[in-house]
């Protein structure tokens, strides 16, 4: 029999101790080769065990817990991490707010699909202490950066804690990224963390976060504040509190909005335009494919012309016409994804918080695009007649701070304006429900429609009319 090494015995003892803490059992009640789930473990306990292992310097993931629940095997697959983490030992509650339906949706989507998760890497040079102090000042002024989501009484609430973000240290960027991507950000856990990786002659800053708290616009605001803090430690950007947005969103009458759209979409028969009814498949984010087509595109909006239409309108009209031509239908339905910064809330552009995109239903019926109204400020999943796998269209800003983890959608069309009259049309799609050949054909038609609609909108002799108002 091969003797067990001292290191393995130590790891087994440490892991045993964590089992006792998580499962609330005494070590004396555990037999020689215990089974995690036989002792009362479940999926929640598994998440707690992974977090506890990370807190105590051990590398362990959920897959290992579920596939190797025996203590001996789990301990053999467990290893120590080189990371040294500074954590808040006793996080005290500062405030509690209700959670928006969007935050709840994003968290559940992340835990189920791995979506809405970002890991950004920067080359770093300078004073690490200054960086940490600057960030600490920013997060103290912005409670959303110290927020965790907690399930209580069947509901999800957001809890602001006193303390600072996690800061890890390491010496190998590739190893850290691999390890970091497996560390869950679940309920009751910090939703962002940082790491300084010193590798040979280079240093890297790794910023990991969930889009429950940070979106692209928020990142720009944060970088602005960091820059100002580097130059002047006393700089204090005054921004509206994020709870004002929570109050605004929760004041929206979702029941009224749902009723409005159910009435507006009444009689629609072609919900599943692309996908046959016998397909029983849920889109998975990491299984999606991507196609990028660059097309010439030039459109000027004249402030003096009543005929000028926006880029947004062009994008939606062109997509409706593309679907109509592709499917031979005159009654088309799709979902429009819009920036959450467009809501009617004073100071919304300065709030540091993920304000989330809004999903608004759009219907194309006999050359008329049904206009959107304030009642569209709801989440697409709130409309019972909608299917998760249906097509969605997204307008992106000119510059992207980073690329977010793909969303679990059947088809997502994204427009990325480039300089010098060029436009990238990006399609994210699930091959289980849409073939690459079919997607390329749609992209070709859509590219042509974009140019045709843009040209028609600027042609004074064109008889084309568009009745569409996108809030």
TrEMBL record:
GO terms for molecular function: ligase activity; phosphopantetheine binding. It comes from the Eukaryota. One of its GO terms (cellular component) is cytoplasm. It holds the Pfam family Condensation. Residues 6-82 form the Carrier domain. GO terms for biological process: amino acid activation for nonribosomal peptide biosynthetic process; secondary metabolite biosynthetic process. Keywords: Ligase. InterPro entries: ACP-like_sf (IPR036736), CAT-like_dom_sf (IPR023213), Condensation_dom (IPR001242), PP-bd_ACP (IPR009081). This is Non-ribosomal peptide synthetase. The gene is NPS6.
